[in-house]
Amino acid sequence: MASDFASTTVAELEAASRLRTQFLITQRPWLDLYGVRVRPVAAFGSTSNKPSYDPALLHRALPDELLYEIFVRMTPYYLGRASCVCRKWRYTIRNPVFWRHACLKAWQLSGVVDNYKILHSKYEGSWRKMWLLRPRVRTDGLYVSRNTYIRAGVAEWKVTNPVHLVCYFRYIRFFPSGRFLYKNSSQKVKEVVKCMNFRASKTDCVYRGQYTLSDDKVEAALLYPGMRPTVLRIRLRLRGTTAGANNRMDLLSLVTSGVNENDANNHEEDMLGVVEGWQDDETHHPDVPAISHKRGLTPFIFVPFEEVEISVLNLPVEKMDYFVPG
């Protein structure tokens, strides 16, 4: 009996030892890479003649030519994210071809010749450096300005004097061609983004205008149609929370003034050229005075299209009674 018990005990201890080894000691093959010097992989288009071996299965299955075709179809901001994946992708994305295409599209109003002059005079011939340091308006989302004011309510039973916190938004969407869309609304950004396009109807109250970019200054103008045509002039200054972000715009001035009917009818698509050189107190319609607005000048923040559904600007007033864009 004693020998049977002893043999049973030894067998159970061995089984327990095997289980402990199997389940508590996890195999980590990547630990073998510590201390091993990994040779950098030559990027696509490299002039090096030395053969390189890429141990990654993805890179062995995906040719460099196909990887290049994928990157060339990505936006610059997605290229920046992809460059954080691995060393080879970072080297490949530093190819000037990607950034040259992005820069020429972003500053197409300046023209190809002027862009090349600015490239060599200010940015040492680096398209990527030009993309990161030169101010530009972003076209992959909306610039949103959230404004609030207090309005007195109707007294009930002459006991209290209620007040209401009114919230409204200014929306701007820029296009590389020099045109932009503007809308004033109390609707949230996830609702307004659906109608911020050139197919919007008149009931959506989306107005079209033109803009120019000079360094970090943006000059924009649009026409409010009606019996008394009114032109809205906007001056903005671009800035960013990080290099190349361009996700903030300070509203320097907002002026409304009258314009004569001939200019309104003949130059509706070029109001920026009509108001060029006007003073802030200048108006060309006797019934519409020039007004320089001092309220509702909250800075614009940029909301990409893929983030409009989750933006904090969709919160109701009672959950976000103030907002500091930074």
Task: Provide an overview of this structure.
This protein is an alpha+beta fold and 326 residues long. It is 29% helix and 23% strand. It contains eleven helices and nine strands. It has helices spanning 2-23, 57-61, 64-72, 76-82, 87-93, 96-106, 112-122, 127-133, 189-192, 261-266, 271-274, and strands at 141-152, 163-174, 179-185, 207-214, 217-224, 230-239, 248-258, 291-292, 300-304. Strands 1-2-3-4-5-6-7-9 form an eight-stranded antiparallel beta barrel. The longest helix is centred in the N-terminal third of the chain and has 22 residues, at 2-23. The chain is flat and about 90 Å long. The model is unreliable at 20-25 (pLDDT under 50).
Give a concise summary:
The chain is of the alpha+beta class.
Which spans of ≥5 residues are poorly predicted at pLDDT below 50?
A: 20-25
In helices, the fraction of residues equals 25-40%
Cα-atom radius of gyration? 30 Å
Silhouette: flat
**How much of the polypeptide forms β-strand, as a percent range?**
15-25%
Main beta-sheet annotation: 8 strands, antiparallel, barrel
| Average pLDDT reading | 78
Tally of individual helices:
11
Distance between the termini: 81 Å
Element-by-element helix/strand order: HHHHHHHHEEEHEEEEHHEE
Tally the beta strands. 9
Q: Structural class, from secondary structure content?
A: alpha+beta
Question: For the largest beta sheet, what order do the strands appear in spatially?
Answer: 1-2-3-4-5-6-7-9
